[in-house]
Amino acid sequence: MGNNHNHPPNTSQQYQHFQHSQKSQQSQHSHSQQDSCAHNIFEFKELRIDSRLDSGNLKLAKQAAPGQYDVWIAPDCYKTKFEVKNCIWFYFKVSNVDLQGADSRTIQFRLMNMKRVEYNNYAKQGMVPVYYSPGKENVWRYLATPLQGLKINGPNLEVKFSYNFTAAESQAGVYFAFSFPYSYTDCQNFLHSLEQAYDNHPDIYFHRELLCYSHEGRHIELITITGHDHSVLNDSKAEIEPLLPDLFPAYQTLHLNEPPTLSNKHLHRPFKFKNKKYVFFTARVHPGEPPANYILQGLIYSLLNNPEDPINRALLQNFVFVFIPMLNPDGVYKGYSRTDAIGINWQFTYHLSENDRKKYHGPHAVLEVSKSLSKDDRLVLYIDLHAHSNKDAGFLYGTWHKDWTKRADMRTFARLLDMYSKNFDYNICEFGTLKMLEEPDPNKMGVAKTEVRKQAGVLHAYTLETSFHITIKDPDRYYLERNPEKKLDRKQMRRIGVAEFMEIGEGIKHAVLDMFGVHPKSILPYTFYGCKEDLRKYIVQVMKETWKPKEPQQAMITKKEEKEKIPISGRQNT
Hints:
Blueprint (H helix, E strand, L loop, with lengths): L12 H17 L11 E3 L4 E3 L9 E6 L2 E5 L18 E5 L8 E12 L3 H6 L5 E3 L7 E3 L6 E5 L2 E11 H6 L1 E4 L6 H15 L5 E10 L5 E9 L2 H4 L43 E7 L7 H14 L5 H9 E6 L4 H6 L26 H13 L5 E7 L8 E4 L6 H17 L13 H5 L9 H9 L4 E6 L3 E2 L22 E2 L2 H19 L15 H15 L12 H4 L12
Parallel strand pairs: 4-6, 14-15, 14-16, 16-18
Antiparallel strand pairs: 1-2, 2-5, 3-4, 5-11, 6-10, 7-8, 7-11, 9-10, 12-13, 13-15, 17-18, 19-20
Helix pairs in contact: 1-4, 6-13, 9-12, 10-13, 10-14
């Protein structure tokens, strides 16, 4: 199942620096009272339970018996007029453990009120909490022991687990969380490390700017990364990106008379790279989904780790990467599961943002940036990053299109990502239906991908999800060495963590280059399809075979297409 889930596929000095700063942040904030009702401390004779952390969450802890403790998750916006009954994310520290004279002691914890949406993860797939022990292992890991009990109580789950505290851990403490945490402070540390490394880099153009403030004044930032283009940077008449309505507050007070240059780039918006394609990513609209940040981080580290690599060089020369790394910093900081500071789940509000920019400032920012970047057809891809409770591996939600070729294009990108990532699975991707286009579901209107598609005209607009902890994908399904008649092996479950989330991000890099550019080391020639055009033709063929004109609502990826065989007569390239 794999033990260590806190190292990226290619450990770099930057990642090690980030890990160090993350651990320092945990130590620094564990003894300071925070301003959230989810940031509480509970003192008992034999231990202390503390959620005074950036992203911490507990509303109550009680001792049920010696060595046994019941804890309750604080719902989003707990004890405010905006309270919403979302109880999924938890994150707390246990310290000052009385070992009663022994070398170690096992303490049992029972989560009393986890929302039942996690039933599939915990009851059917063996998900367990993660822990971090500064005095023992110095990395986040899944608990080594399975859950000791699971009880369904109406809309809630009661989840029981134990941990054996050593002498070193009894005082230093151990952290427990629903999934691998990625806090607001972690995000700021990550951006700061990027800025230090690349702000004056000879080959990398890096631009960091304040996009807007959250309801509580935290920074929502926009990052732009590409390779230096001297035809733009040395042009005295070079254009910069425009100011957008109700955004970029730091620029509003500036009165810059000199033309934009690299030396004064922090005083103006990024340069426009009109000859490059733009790709745009957003993460953490749902604060309780930290895998989204690890996916994004994997993409960025992989892109910047070696600018001279032919693949990275092709990407930096031909693409501009734009991302909002943390769209809902208030929710992340406060340890919420789904909402912002005033109880709104932004996932379904993008269509409302134009009429109430201040209330929905995050969705408004996403759409305004998308529309601006899509001018001159620069924006070719938008991905909103999430995590999912009840599906396996990574997968995409796309949108419907009436044109066969464009529907095939959307599926082609998903296929490419499936080829390049061992933790992404095309077979669970969905691309909507004709019925959804003509009769939109009011409960699913206004999601980011749909509104970016509508308002910015971006065909390749997706929600990318990943399971919090599991994949059952066959990672070698496309290669020629495989028997093309062999069914996909979907029985072997593999536990995934930080390294695997980051691997999906690295896979995005390759899929972007193969889909929208020229990949110098494409793996397509070594698959049964041979080239992108033949892959696209095959996808159209499968769609037409599964098309049911009398039942348009079934014109999505059907179960037949999900379980398709690799064509026996596929192209045999060596």
